[in-house]
């Protein structure tokens, strides 16, 4: 059983990355363009351009989410996204109360930790970075970003 789970790990990680990136990008698109219900607290509206920190956070959400979804520069995009969610939690939510359940900060906390996990695990399967690395013959791709079958093939 453990062997099957281990062999599926890169694929599940790739799906996790794609889902988290998609949800994050949708959140940014809603805030910037008023789609999908619009920005939170605006009754379907948008955040005015250049407004600090909301508009900049929405840009990070849209662009960072898209990069993570595609698996393009995943670690860097996830690091920026994680930092933006940490900022959102500590600057906006924690002022109201200590615990996320009390201050409405569950979503920023979960996004922050999900993106931080991707910083350390890499993109997993189905990532554009993996396709680009294979096209270039795998040059410059660290072993930690390789899938389990790729590592096994490299050591054989």
Would you write up a description of this structure?
There is one protein chain. This protein is mainly α and 156 residues long. It is built from seven helices and no strands. The chain has one domain. It is 67% helix and 0% strand.
Q: What is the total number of structural domains?
A: 1
Mean pLDDT: 86
What string, H for helix and E for strand, traces the elements in order? HHHHHHH
Structural class: mainly alpha
Total helical elements: 7
Number of E-type strands: 0
Beta-strand percentage?
A: under 5%
Task: Sum up the overall morphology in one term.
Answer: globular
Largest sheet: none
What labels would you give this structure?
0% strand, globular, mainly alpha, 7 helices, 156 residues
């Amino acid at each position: 059983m453990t062997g099957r789970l281990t062999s599926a790990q890169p694929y599940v990680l790739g799906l996790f990355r794609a889902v988290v990136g998609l949800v994050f990008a949708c959140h940014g698109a809603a805030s910037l363009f008023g789609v999908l219900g619009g920005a939170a607290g605006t009754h379907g509206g948008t955040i005015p351009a250049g407004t600090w920190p909301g508009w900049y956070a929405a840009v990070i959400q849209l662009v960072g989410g898209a990069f993570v979804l595609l698996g393009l520069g995943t670690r860097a995009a996830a690091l920026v996204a994680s930092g933006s969610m940490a900022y959102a939690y500590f600057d906006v939510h924690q002022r109201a109360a200590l615990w996320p359940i009390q201050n409405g900060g569950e979503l920023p906390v979960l996004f922050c930790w999900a993106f931080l996990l991707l910083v350390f695990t890499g993109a997993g399967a189905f990532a554009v970075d993996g396709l680009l690395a294979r096209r270039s013959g795998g040059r410059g791709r660290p072993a930690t970003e390789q899938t389990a079958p790729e590592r096994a093939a490299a050591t054989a």
